[in-house]
Specification:
- The longest helix is centred in the N-terminal third of the chain and has 7 residues.
- The chain is built from 2 helices and 46 strands.
- Among the domains are: about 160 residues, no CATH class; about 70 residues, no CATH class; about 70 residues, Thrombin, subunit H (Beta Barrel).
- With about 500 residues, the chain is an all-beta fold.
- The protein is elongated.
Length: about 500
Amino acid sequence: MSKKLIIMVSILFILCPIYSFAQDVSVSLPRYSVVLNDIKVDNAHSKYPLVVYKGITYFPMTFYQCRFMGIESKWTDGEGLEINKSGVIGEYRPNLINGKNNRSYKANIADFNIKVNGKIIDNSKEKYPLIVLNNVTYFPMTWKFVVDEFGWDYKFDSKKGLYIKSRKLEVKKWDLPYEDIYGNICMYNGYYYYVVNIKNKKYVYSAKVDNTKKASKLCELKGDLIVGGSFFKQDGEVCFKYHSGIVSMGCDYTYKIKKDNTVEFVTSGYFKNIKYKDRIICYDYGPLASDGNLYYEEEDYKREYIGNKEYMYRYHKIIGDNMYVTAYKPGNKNDENKIYKINMNTNEMEQLSYVEAHEFYIVDDKIYFKSDKDKKIYSMGLNGENQNVVIDGDVGWFKIDNDTIYYISDKTEEIFYKKVGEKSKLLMKKQKVVEIDLRSDYIICTLRDKEDYGIVVFDKNQNVVFKTSDKVESYWSDEDYIIYNTYDTNNNYIVRLK
């Protein structure tokens, strides 16, 4: 089910409870325009407008406003309010009201513990103290906070008004002439690609990155009861895959997007074609797959089985004349899924792993795999030699990048990384991660819905280069670009990481 169908039952706007206040103060709406990150603020109709106190503009610290400006806050009964610069990216949500705001209001001086970037703020001694208006904390946009603490670009002109830019990364919002139905948009060769529904028919559309107002129909999706759909990269090319029909009664369809901006139909069914020298290997998968699902298909639909036809296979990779797979005998209840090597010349099948294994990766001359039974990660040579435990348990899911293993804790769902010869280290504290995607220069983490961020991107030195608090439906990465769709507001954004 699409995340767009999820209804958000609550939104946190108030970042700190209010226990007591000092004296009342008078504040007013600014008589000049305010532009934040290139967006002009509609103070006249905002539920939480910027205000002016003692000649200084004050900023409302609502949940979304803070994250739009790259800061985060936390309230605890013991510590009070903490404000920290984090560089988080968030959508601008104006939260407009039907009526018009008054010109002036009564506010209060905040009378609780406050820390900014770990420094204690004695609000009673501040020339421009933090204030509270309509149960929301406001901080003064003085040089001390705006420039020294948060590092924002700050300009004020009596005619043009106040201009503040908090982001080093350029995040751009863009619209498409037709709504994408899967929240899954890809960028390739200067185009956006997505799927639309027009009069109950589904089509793949494209639009130029530099001109999204005009879109072109590329092809209609075949089949009935079309569900799901996603773009993915394979061998340097972009493909689109979706399912038609009801589970086993239907089939998967795959298309390839070519560099000339045309679409080529590839396959339909539950199988994959693999090229090996001058022959084509068929690998069956899905609900209809059974033993003997790895074979050469000859003329008249005759099959030449690869390995032992009594086994059920999951294809992984061919290196030289050896195919690496996981396999088990469906008719044997005691047979566990293990890693095998098949010699493509002799068809000899050799068991490599001595413990149960499923997903595995081959890096250089080593195989890394996880056992679902003991939650451990093992390594061994390409012939099964020197099998060792690399990570001793609590692994729910993992990927490997050269000499570094990234894995998600089975218990806490936090993400860790371990380099060869070193101990495991926590990559991100107290954040539940769904999966990670390893790209040439980046590590992209997708988080669970209720976590602080939608996606977080690290470089290969484990430094954060991008994170957004937006609820991300899906994302696509292309070299230094990330494009993502938000499922609660259905907006599309593109950001260049460097």
